[in-house]
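HUMAN: Please help interpret these tokens:
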Amino acid sequence: GASLPLRGEEQKKVEGEGEGRRRAVLYEQCAQVLLEMNRTFDAIVAAENAVKSDMSNPHGLLTLARAQLNHGELDMAVQSFQAAHVLSKKTKKYSTLVPEISLELQEAKTIAQKLKQCESQGEEKTTKQGGTGNYAASGDVEVWRARNTIARMTMNAEGEGWQGVEGKGE
């Protein structure tokens, strides 16, 4: 059957939703470009705008999670991956993303776990030396990045094949 034409407020609502979706796609693509340029903070801002523009699209959440992970915001990245995973499972249109998101979610959890182990080992050492040893609390993202790079290189050398999330895009 033919549908009735939309009028007034209904038309504005539909047009607004379409505009929000288009805006979300642009923000999400911008975030991916910023990630490629290693501008992780700017990528986070763009991805957050994508999510705000269209909360029904898991692509924005997925890109946000990747940006947060690359920026060293591990707990936030895990939360964003989880939200993208739930949203993808709920929406048939995005169900093909579920395996990819599941894999990246597991990688993020593994990284977070390894970092916490490193921090606790570092805390034990520096506590004996009189320091704090808590790099995450001090906000030293560069230390996290260095550890992430070393871990990635070590895992690659050991043949585990983990490549991290840098450079992955839609």
Notes: The two ends are 36 Å apart (CA to CA). Residues 42 and 102 are 25 Å apart (CA to CA).
